[in-house]
Amino acid sequence: MTQDSERVDVEKDREDRISALPKNVIDGILELLPVEDAARTSILSKNWRYIWVMLPNLVLNKLFCNKLAARSQYVFKDNVDKILLQHSGDIVKFVLDLSEIVLSPYPDIDRWMIYITRNGVKELTLNMSNNTTYNLPSYIFNCPTLTHLELLSCVFKPPTPFLGFPNLVILRLEKITFVPTTEFCVINAPLLVRLTLIYCNGTKYLNIVSSRLNSLVVRKSYYDIELSCFMNCKNLIILYLVTSNPIFGDRSKLQKLLLSLPILKVLILSSSFLELLSAGTVPQGLPFTLNCLWHLKLGINFGQMGQISYALELIKSSHKLSELEIWVNATSDIVEAISEYLDTPGCLDQPLNKLKYVVIRFFKGSKTELLFVKLLFARCPSLISMSIKQVKASGSKGERNIVIELARYPRASPKAELLYVPRSD
Which residues contact 172 (CB under 8 A, 6 or more apart)? Predict the structure, then answer.
């Protein structure tokens, strides 16, 4: 009897020590578990019976959803219903990943969205399947508590009237189709600081109103975004514009946008945007300076004089530039005029005193690329590292000759190191 009593006391002591942990620690532990495992903790003791139903963060990720849907759609829907019906208190964060599940029609999803938007949700992530055309319900547009909204593969059609998202700070939209109820999809988000648009359709109808926006990321297969709606975003410090196809747009709008960003610190442009800005000509200076820019990433077609010359003008106009990254989009050895241009000291007629780190990706070893590297070595007195990442390792004699030539280039910085990284498949 004494041994049994001691065993019970030890077990109680263990239970008490776990139960005595601060609530935020217990919540943190449970949030690391899959939802079904968190639910199983209710059998540990009476004290733990209702802890999981009060978790502020509900993450129904891809693994969880796929596992239940593999049994049947009814089992999946029934389990989500039970999780939400048993939940007590506010739902601060809700993640639902249906990217590999096709639920049609969508009354169940609508019902779940009603529930979470009525229970104080602040962070909402909804990832739908690529094969769906899920129209976002009005409950999401009319949810004033949202601070973080991430949507994938949905139709974005605001109700009328739509007053915006008064507390939204982060908005990430991927594969979203914008459908305006009037002339534009106007999103009034006075607190918005980060906006990401990835492969969205109908962005020409989008109009973002946010004076606090400091990060704008746009990645598209084609370009149709109306940049003029960002002209008043004077606090923008990160601008990422990448598209994989040629751009037939208004060059002046992009120039005006860059001119309107006095504190821009990070600029990322694909070669299509360089082509738009250069208009195929060699610029004589730029209509703007980037006085705060310290990180510049550019895609360059080394077979296009306009892109190379405009890239150099951007580099010269960035007086605080310390990090430069170049993607070799394409190249050519047959354009003699480009080689002559790069071999002329006047194409970069000033030292880049702040530039410390250079990375060149997808390096192909053409003459124009080599001359570009040579130019940077000669004009960067503070350079620490020149990292060149080849598009494909060949181990040939020609490749070894390229490395030898790069190593022989004179360097303005005694600290500059050449890091040549052959790419391995």
Answer: 149, 150, 151, 194, 195, 196, 198
- Global pTM reads 0.86
**Interatomic CA distance for residues 266 and 214, integer angstroms:** 10
Q: Which of 385, 300, 394, 288 lies closest to 338 in space, CA to CA?
A: 300
Sole residue written with tokens 């990430």: 172
pLDDT digits 0-9 by tens, 89-130:
889 999 999 999 887 768 999 999 999 999 999 999 999 998
Residues facing residue 359 across a β-bridge: 325, 387
Sign of CA dihedral 200, 205, 209, 213: positive
- Alpha-carbon distances, residue 383 vs 218, 245, 378, 411 (angstroms): 31, 33, 10, 9
Distance CA 193, CA 170 (A): 6
> Which residues, in sequence order, are bridge partners of residue 361?
327, 389
Task: Note whether 260 and 234 are within 8 A (CB).
Answer: yes
Cβ(84)–Cβ(119) under 8 Å? no
Query: How many other β-carbons are positioned within 10 Å of the β-carbon of residue 270?
Result: 24
Alpha carbons within 13 A on the beta-carbon side of 182: 9
How many Å separate Cα 264 from the centre of its chain? 17
For 400, counting Cβ atoms within 10 Å of its Cβ (0-12 exposed, 13-18 middle, 19+ buried), the class is exposed
Tokens for 71, please give them. Answer: 């049994």
- Please return the burial class of 312, using the count of CB atoms within 10 Å of its CB with bins 0-12, 13-18 and 19+: buried
CB proximity list for 4: less than 8 A, separation 6 or greater: none
Select from 173, 122, 172 the least CA-distant residue to 143: 122
Residues 88/113, Cβ–Cβ less than 8 Å = no
Tokens of residue 184, six digits: 């534009």
User: 310 CB contacts (<8 Å, ≥6 apart)?
Assistant: 274, 277, 278, 283
Query: Three-class SS of residue 46?
Result: helix
The per-residue pLDDT for range 146-204, each reduced to its tens digit, is 999 999 999 999 988 888 999 999 999 999 998 877 777 888 899 999 999 999 888 88
Tell me how far apart the alpha carbons of residues 299 and 270 are, in angstroms, rounded to a whole number: 4
CA dist., res. 73 & res. 52, Å (int): 24
Structure tokens, 100:
């590999």
User: Tens digits of per-residue pLDDT, 379-399?
Assistant: 999 999 999 998 766 667 778
**Residue 342 near residue 315 (C-beta atoms within 8 A):** no
